[in-house]
Design brief:
Chains A, B: GO terms for molecular function: thiolester hydrolase activity. The structure is a homodimer. By secondary structure, chain A is α+β, with helices and mostly antiparallel strands. Chain A has 1 helix and 5 strands. The longest helix of chain A is centred in the first third of the chain and has 23 residues, at about 25-45. The mean pLDDT of chain A is about 90.
């Protein structure tokens, strides 16, 4: 893990929208989860926090803004691949660019602006 | 129904993210659903389709792009109100602006670019 994160999902049929295609809200949810998780991982790397050390409380991020562009129907029955790339970190603010693909097909792109969540502080800027 | 749509939701606890707050992916899903539904309703009004006539196949829309700005944590246990306002229609393209509120608190805003889906044609432009 440097400045890129990868996740794979195979979705069940209950997430179908139009016949044979994944529900768009689920695509948004996957991009939200992968985005905040990636932002937290990138923040750990930037702060030299060892991701393998489970005794350290990990960084947790919340979403401030999420943009999704749907490029093609997301086919059911194909393993989905999510890739997150760090765009920039400025203090508690982290921006990540994402893609969601089914095989060779680029189904959606996502941009997330995530904020390092400090417990007992207001969530948002 | 003229150029505004309203929907209400009361969510169960399984949609909790951080303690007491609704999961962001669910907020995105609600805005996606309300956005495409609103776009379809606005398209019907624009085309003088009677929404009460169930013998006519209604317009169905798919999401091309969705942007969500999270303004405050969405509190669990409070009925949520979604409001959609028509921004513009150009042929098959429909833009809708949305808000998601819990009581007096504006929790999120959304912008959707939706496309009138023609069956057996490619989904996207």
């Amino acid at each position: 893990m440097g400045d890129e994160t990868v996740a794979h999902f195979l979705l069940g049929e209950k997430f179908t929208a139009l016949s044979g295609s994944v529900y768009g809200g689920l695509v948004a949810s996957l991009l939200d989860c992968h985005g905040t998780g990636s932002a937290a991982a990138f923040a750990c790397v930037a702060e030299n926090i060892d991701l393998e050390n489970t005794e350290i409380i990990p960084v947790r991020c919340v979403t401030a803004s999420l943009k999704i562009d749907f490029k093609a129907p997301t086919t059911m029955g194909t393993e989905l691949e999510l890739i997150g790339k760090l765009r920039s970190i400025e203090g508690r603010k982290i921006w990540v660019d994402m893609t969601l693909s089914a095989g060779d097909i680029l189904c959606a792109t996502g941009e997330i602006f995530s904020v390092h969540h400090i417990p007992h502080h207001p969530f948002f800027l």
